[in-house]
Design the sequence.
């Protein structure tokens, strides 16, 4: 599968702005530290200029990204003035395009007509689930039909479409999450993000957690489920550009996350488990594995093969009674390959 080029993103938070209400799991203030407010023109200019000064030469595509709220749920004049401000930077050539995240039920022809003419290339939909019961319990206020309709309208207008999916919401389970992934893949998004549900302070979910009404997924179960989803999307040739919440200072502040499968390197845990599975199946296929083995992988995958704190190596040693395992790099191997000798 082709790797999609990672753009240099200039994030502009519009924390909870445009949200019709609070979804049960959400607290953007805990995630981003930004108080609900629409940034002024001057603030946008300062933020963009500051970020551009950090950009390294080799980063080709630059995008201004509005997120943390419901972009197309903003008042029309706010949508237009934010886009006008961002477009100044595309006009002077320092930024290539604009992206934003929005709820599926904000996608309609009227709003898409409003943003036509602005250099918006990518729209991310907060899909979260394709199960209407899970969506209702998350207090999303939209259904899977809204997502299907939104995807069709965005594709008609040639936007690059991202879909954000959550796992471990109230009422969700592995079968429901896999079924949701199938429905998402059938909508042919250009990329997907997968977020485990964590209990954020001051959210409705936090109240349900305190009262015992909601129990988050354990981290190891969640990693295994996200691994299945990742492998499924990969089979369908849909890039998964993020797994797990982005670690930010605010998120890591004590008291922001009350419970749930949060790990600062969640994606790494998923990739490590994939390498563990691969190595296990190769060793299993050897009738009598040697007592001492070497595993070669592409240099970029050494730490994924080892796992965090050498966890994979310890598991393989115990599982197959191997006394010594070396992990060596081999540039001739592909990203997904490993050799055992
Ligand atoms: S999930 Fe999205 S729509 Fe819901 S409250 Fe959070 S930012 Fe708003």
Sequence:
């Amino acid at each position: 599968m082709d790797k999609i080029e990672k753009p240099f993103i200039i994030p502009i938070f519009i924390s909870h702005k445009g949200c019709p209400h609070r979804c049960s799991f959400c607290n953007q203030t805990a995630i981003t530290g930004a108080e609900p407010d629409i940034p002024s023109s001057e603030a946008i200019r300062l933020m963009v200029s500051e970020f551009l000064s950090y950009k390294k030469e080799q980063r080709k595509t630059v995008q201004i990204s509005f997120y943390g709220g419901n972009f197309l749920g903003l008042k029309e004049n706010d949508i237009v003035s934010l886009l006008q401000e961002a477009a100044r930077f595309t006009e002077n050539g320092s930024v290539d395009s604009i992206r934003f995240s929005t709820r599926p039920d904000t996608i309609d022809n009227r709003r898409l007509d409003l943003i036509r003419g602005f250099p918006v290339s990518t729209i991310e939909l907060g899909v979260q689930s394709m199960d209407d019961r899970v969506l209702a319990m998350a207090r999303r206020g939209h259904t899977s039909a809204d997502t299907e309709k939104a995807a069709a309208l965005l594709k008609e207008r040639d936007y690059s479409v991202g879909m954000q999916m959550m796992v471990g919401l109230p009422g969700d389970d592995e079968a429901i999450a896999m079924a949701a992934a199938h429905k998402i893949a059938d909508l042919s998004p250009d990329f997907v993000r997968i977020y485990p549900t964590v209990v954020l302070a001051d959210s409705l979910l936090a109240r349900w957690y305190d009262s015992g009404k909601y129990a988050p997924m354990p981290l190891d179960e969640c990693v295994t489920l996200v691994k299945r989803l990742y492998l499924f999307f990969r089979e369908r040739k849909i890039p998964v550009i993020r797994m797990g919440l982005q670690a930010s200072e605010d998120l890591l502040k004590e008291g922001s996350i009350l419970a749930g499968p949060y790990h600062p390197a969640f994606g790494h845990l998923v990739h490590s488990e994939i390498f563990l599975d691969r190595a296990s199946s190769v060793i299993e296929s050897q009738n009598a594995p040697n007592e001492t083995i070497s595993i070669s992988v592409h240099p970029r995958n050494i730490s994924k093969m080892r796992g965090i704190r050498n966890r994979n190596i310890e598991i393989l040693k115990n599982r197959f009674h191997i006394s010594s395992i070396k992990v060596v790099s081999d540039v001739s191997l592909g990203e997904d390959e490993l050799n055992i000798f």
